[in-house]
Design brief:
7 strands
Length: about 325
């Protein structure tokens, strides 16, 4: 690889590794009850957020799902703010009120996530409408899972975005399961992009989980949106390694084919990109990430819980 390729690989690896290690720490800590909310881990799915967000500008807007750790961190969300939020502390990104499923960092362009499936999609569309009226080149990316495409709000959002030529990129993180139910028991036909196309929205798909393919596909879609504001759609096949909700693995339950899991684990992008880098490069990245996580955990541990007198704050408009 030339120097430019090494720089790109190192940048993507740093984000992938950070997300993986943060979530591994969460899985380790969760049984101690220091984390005060349910967690939906992105382990195995990191390449989707990393690849798409690397194609954006820092002032673009990202709308994560409740499985949103990866998108939050990939777009520059505070590690300290995230751990403090999971611990329910006042320095958390949502002041300790939201937990894992409600991460937010407006200064970094990260809209608040929601625990309710599909509800962030129309909010992202609304933000894209605001960006259009501001007459800027900025755009919004809405992440959601395959289960969210079964909600009426998804189709209403597609229609509205297409009708008003909004600068939004819809990204379906298709891991093939709504909790434990596979696509073939939920969809009469596995033709998501065909359904999207019926709204006149251009689409593309990445099926192998390759972070470079995801980035390049997203980069082309983003360039098209900036050139002529109109919605675009990406379906990205992926695979979560852990259980739907919680820190553990659930392969023993038997709802997933072991060959499917083996297929995706062989394509782990964290290991792949590490193998592409010089040893001194990835070791330095790894050590910096570990130090960053240690600092964030220490801050979260030392911080205070919200006071009871503040319970009614941010419930009603001032």
């Amino acid at each position: 690889m030339d120097e430019q390729d090494i720089d790109l690989t190192a940048r993507l690896y740093q984000k992938l590794r950070l997300i993986r290690r943060v979530e591994e720490e969460i899985a380790e800590i969760y049984p101690t009850d220091r984390i005060k909310s349910p967690v939906h881990l992105s382990i195995g799915q990191e390449a989707v957020s990393v690849g798409v967000i690397d194609a954006l500008e820092p002032d673009d807007i990202v709308s994560p799902t409740y499985r949103g750790h990866a998108a939050y961190l990939a777009h520059g969300g505070s590690v300290e703010g995230m751990f403090a939020e999971l611990f329910g502390k006042v320095s958390g990104c949502a002041k300790g009120r939201g937990g894992s499923m409600h991460l937010i960092d407006i200064e970094q362009g990260i809209l608040g996530a929601s625990a309710v499936v599909g509800t962030t999609i129309p909010i992202a569309v609304g933000y894209a409408l605001a960006l259009k009226h501001q007459r800027t080149s900025r755009l919004c990316v809405a992440f959601f899972g395959d289960g969210a495409t079964e909600e009426g709000a998804f189709y209403e959002s597609l229609n509205f975005a297409a009708l008003h030529d909004l600068p939004i990129l819809f990204v379906c993180e298709n891991n093939g399961y709504a909790i434990h139910t596979p696509l073939n028991k939920r969809w009469a036909k596995d033709a998501l992009c065909d359904r999207v196309q019926s709204f006149g929205i251009a689409f593309d798909a990445v099926t192998d989980g390759d972070v470079f393919s995801i980035r390049n596909t997203a980069k082309a879609a983003v360039a098209a949106i900036r050139s002529s504001p109109t919605p675009r759609f990406l379906e990205i096949k992926t695979h979560r390694w852990r259980e739907h909700v919680g820190p553990g693995c659930d392969d023993h339950v038997g709802y997933r084919d072991p060959e499917e899991t083996a297929f995706w684990r062989k394509r782990d992008q964290v290991d792949r990109l590490q193998s592409m880098l010089p040893e001194e490069t990835y070791l330095l990245i790894d050590s910096q990430i570990e130090a960053r996580i240690d600092r964030a955990l220490a801050t979260a541990e030392a911080d205070s819980f919200p006071e009871a007198k503040d319970l009614s704050l941010h419930v009603f408009a001032d």
